[in-house]
């Protein structure tokens, strides 16, 4: 069985890993202290990763305002969903806004179909 997670949570994990990559790249740069040019290249790369991560965080903020707040039928907690189908942030219960899809097995392809129609 594939483990799904909420789209917003997925993007958050991605942004967090970018920050870690940024710090790792800068840390690697410290091993080249004898070559200031190499160090600065690593530092700039690390800063770029962290800047990109803040952009991703900003994007999550934008997405969150567009996300629909629903009360999860599984755990009763309020959660946010993106697109026609998403997963509850708290209990990973599949959620849908489309009554046609209600009761059907969760499938990421439903989101793609929506995109194709546009
Ligand atoms: Zn839930």
Automatic annotation (TrEMBL):
Chief localisation class: membrane
Membrane-crossing residue ranges in chain numbering: 12-32, 38-60
Membrane-protein topology: Multi-pass membrane protein
Keywords, comma-separated and alphabetical: Cell membrane, Membrane, Transmembrane, Transmembrane helix
InterPro entries named in the record: UPF0295 (IPR020912)
Domain of life of the native organism: Bacteria
Cellular localisation: Cell membrane
One GO CC annotation: plasma membrane
Family that this chain belongs to: Belongs to the UPF0295 family.
Protein name (record): UPF0295 protein BpJC7_10180
Species of provenance: Weizmannia acidilactici
